[in-house]
Amino acid sequence: MSKKVLVLPGDGIGPEIVEQAVRVLDAVNASFDLGIEHESALVGGSAYDETGSPLPETTLDKAKAADSILLGAVGGPKWDGLDMSVRPEKGLLGLRSNLELFANLRPAILYPQLADASSLKPEIVAGLDILIVRELTGGIYFGQPRGIRTLENGEREGFNTYVYSESEIRRIAHSAFEAARQRGKRVCSIDKSNVLEVTVLWKEVMEEVAKEYPDVELSHMLVDNAAMQLVRAPKQFDVMVTGNMFGDILSDAAAMLTGSIGMLPSASLNSKGQGMYEPCHGSAPDIAGKGIANPLATILSVAMMLRYSLNAKDAADAIEAAVSNVLDQGLRTADIASEGSETVSTSQMGDAVLAAL
Amino acid sequence: MSKKVLVLPGDGIGPEIVEQAVRVLDAVNASFDLGIEHESALVGGSAYDETGSPLPETTLDKAKAADSILLGAVGGPKWDGLDMSVRPEKGLLGLRSNLELFANLRPAILYPQLADASSLKPEIVAGLDILIVRELTGGIYFGQPRGIRTLENGEREGFNTYVYSESEIRRIAHSAFEAARQRGKRVCSIDKSNVLEVTVLWKEVMEEVAKEYPDVELSHMLVDNAAMQLVRAPKQFDVMVTGNMFGDILSDAAAMLTGSIGMLPSASLNSKGQGMYEPCHGSAPDIAGKGIANPLATILSVAMMLRYSLNAKDAADAIEAAVSNVLDQGLRTADIASEGSETVSTSQMGDAVLAAL
Ligand SMILES: CC(C)[C@H](C(=O)O)[C@@H](O)C(=O)O
Ligand SMILES: CC(C)[C@H](C(=O)O)[C@@H](O)C(=O)O
């Protein structure tokens, strides 16, 4: 039975890095005989330019029919002036919500070969390995009512709604506890329960679900403290679980602790085992088209996809080993270059991973 | 004409650190002949314990009548089980909102003497001097509707409202631009305008107000990117302005970049020039009563108070110079101790500042 992968290059550096990742996918597909078929579709700004929509119906249909999705990145200043309803980001948010990809897994791992790249002292980040589990289809990103209205006194007011139901919290709690079981068996749930009622409920449901995982330890931390602790002593964390908005902020901070966000993949999963895989970094329009972007986060996203959605653990291991191997060889794209390393282009990095496979 | 200062020691280490700060206030009051009178009142958990309310009416009345307020800190695990309406934090939030202390100024400054304390590499943080201007009486902290309700299907749902009117945004924008004029003349406004409508309005009003400050440069950054940039290259910022929730998170992250949050004061101002001054750190219940807490952030809060609310710039300068002097002497409380420094207690640190004055 063949597996279908939908490839969505997107905007900015998306097409360049996805090209290399697809070469890697093709290689393991052949050598491990995985029976994967893939096709491409438009999403984001490039989809808007062609069709007037950042998420054309054909793309959504193909996404629903796929076993998994490989995404590059979306967005760029070119589309900044557009109405929010058709901005590139809406393509991404539409995929997340239509496919109910509620569980976003964002590992922040420091590769020993890249320890120097961090802005933090080596002893603070050496061996860093955190997993941020972010709720991705609820919270203030999707809450209603929302908008900008005119008040009686004539001035305008902007408003959004931060909302979570018990069942939404429960399912992301399960994702976090399951993930922790495969790792350090500790979950830290992040809230602002001293101010926000919605996170009081969040905390309560976390406690409730924790009872089903007696082997996993649950702790709680306020979001402001979590931001501090990530800077102060990030290695205290194993799995952090939080809502959509806090997760957006904290996962980016955590990724940046490594100094090599160009290395970090992510997965967004639904309850049917479908997943969308993408690098943690954005579309980097400033370097798009120059052939210097780092394709490794996207290549590692392929590995994550093979592991979580396509049941091909060996192929995933092989890709991860190949990436480690090229780092050992001293090959670096510009974003992670350091003294003594050899700076290579996007496609040269792809070549090197293929050679190491 | 005498100036009235209300002293609110609060909970945890609050009383200990405020005690030292009041000694310093008394000293400059005498030597600079400032005519300051002060009295104390209860707030937070200790107020709840005595009166059943975290913000007793007598405290609020005294606060309204005061020229400025010196606060220690509120909260602690002792009160964690209380209903949100009477938790210690409500005392703090009640003061902010009743006095309309909408402009929260949180400097993140790295003292050269404490450069080692940071978890970041010295070259990343040396000379760091950012000012975070956080809106403090609006946004999701105070937005209505809010609460936890039961849905028709029987499950519960928690909800909060993130809301800002144009006038609320406009006044905090003015605070940020005015502050930038006294500093590096650059304001970076933080939003999530690619997802949240309320921050689309925020960004628009920032642009509008910027026209009145042609000498100040305005830029915009998404909150997730801001969290990354603070970790990657914090010195790129001069003044950052943002809403209540993002400000809570980013100001704590920025403070922690210095590694010495025990050194950072803050001011919360209203449009009448009244201000509440407090350390950036919390009530640290784990070390309360041990006499080891760092009183310098509270002492520096007194300096900020003299400068911003009591028109006593010379006295403020004197306090800041005295603090710098004790650091030069190598005196450190435990939180900022390092090799070769002399570890002193809370009251010894107070003694040293008084001696240096
Ligand atoms: C592009 C944007 C809508 C998105 C988000 O905020 O979720 C991005 O920042 C991310 O984290 O994937
Ligand atoms: C204690 C709490 C309510 C408060 C806040 O969230 O504003 C604190 O974290 C702060 O930043 O002053």
Descriptive notes:
Chains A, B: Mg(2+) binds at residues 224, 248, 252. Two copies of one chain form a homodimer. Helices cover 40% and strands 22% of the residues of chain A. The first copy, chain A, has 357 residues and is of the alpha/beta class. Chain A has two domains: 1-111 and 260-357, Isopropylmalate Dehydrogenase (3-Layer(aba) Sandwich), CATH 3.40.718.10; 129-257, Isopropylmalate Dehydrogenase (3-Layer(aba) Sandwich), CATH 3.40.718. Chain A has a ten-stranded mixed sheet with strand order 2-1-3-12-11-4-5-10-8-9, sandwiched between helices. A two-stranded antiparallel sheet of chain A has the order 6-7. In chain A, helix 1 packs across helix 10 (296-308) and helix 10 runs antiparallel to helix 11. The radius of gyration of chain A is 20 Å and the shape is globular. The two termini of chain A are 25 Å apart. The interface between A and B is large, with 61 and 61 residues. Strand 7 of chain A pairs antiparallel with strand 7 (156-165) of chain B. The structure holds 3-isopropylmalic acid (2 copies). One 3-isopropylmalic acid (IPM) sits between chains A (75, 89, 92-93, 248) and B (194-195, 224).
Write the SSE topology:
Two copies of one chain form a homodimer.
Chain A: E1 3-10, H1 14-31, E2 36-40, H2 45-51, H3 57-65, E3 68-73, H4 88-98, E4 103-109, H5 122-125, E5 129-135, E6 147-150, E7 156-165, H6 166-181, E8 186-191, H7 197-210, E9 217-222, H8 223-232, E10 239-242, H9 244-257, E11 265-269, E12 275-279, H10 296-308, H11 313-328, E13 331-332, E14 342-343, H12 346-356
